Amino acid sequence: MGDKRAAVSSDATPPPECVRVVVRVRPSNERERKLQAADESVVAIRPATDPADLPTRLDVKCGQPSVVDSSFNYDAIFGTNASQHDVYGYMQSSVEQVVQGFNCTIFAYGQTGTGKTHTMMGPDSSLRQGDMSQWGVIPRAVDGLFQELKAVGGCGAGAFVHCSYMQIYNNQVFDLLQSSSMKDQPPLQVREMIKVQCPPT
């Protein structure tokens, strides 16, 4: 990640082919707060020069003489106060471009407990009770996609939606749309194809 990566406004619409790397910093949980000897965090988000822009630089202070402090640049950084709405708003334009024929991939990466499920899905209670304010990226993207298709349908165009929902866990692939829980179902078989596509079956 080079230092020349420019700050991106939350209202900006990037080109369809753009790959963006975004960081979301979650707040400390109760266990972590009890273990902390001081209130100071080792991770500090450097504010953007323009308040209208999202931060793009993250400073990591290890606090150990043998470890060098580091700084990292990203396309955007969401702090601990960022809402689900804020996070999805940054990538909403990419989802809308799917209706225009562009591919869109949103990939969440991080250690266990870093908040990937919260960001991508939101709390289970928000899905059951319809609390849209806590919805994560996936339910917001599905809702937004069908809203876009509804608008396109008003112009006489038709659409076909195909959905698969899978989880890769310990190098095994599971179908999350099955009625049985993941622990009660065998993993899917991944078969290699001549055209370098490996769909699970």
Automatic annotation (TrEMBL):
What the entry lists under SUPFAM superfamilies is as follows: P-loop containing nucleoside triphosphate hydrolases (SSF52540)
The molecular function GO annotations come to: ATP binding; microtubule binding; microtubule motor activity
Question: Which residue ranges does the record assign to the Kinesin motor domain?
Answer: 18-201
Q: Which Pfam families match?
A: Kinesin
* InterPro entries the record matches: Kinesin-like_fam (IPR027640), Kinesin_motor_dom (IPR001752), Kinesin_motor_dom_sf (IPR036961), P-loop_NTPase (IPR027417)
Task: Give the keywords, sorted.
Answer: ATP-binding, Coiled coil, Cytoplasm, Motor protein, Nucleotide-binding
The transmembrane residues are none
- PANTHER family, alphabetically? CHROMOSOME-ASSOCIATED KINESIN KIF4A-RELATED
Q: What is this protein called?
A: Kinesin motor domain-containing protein
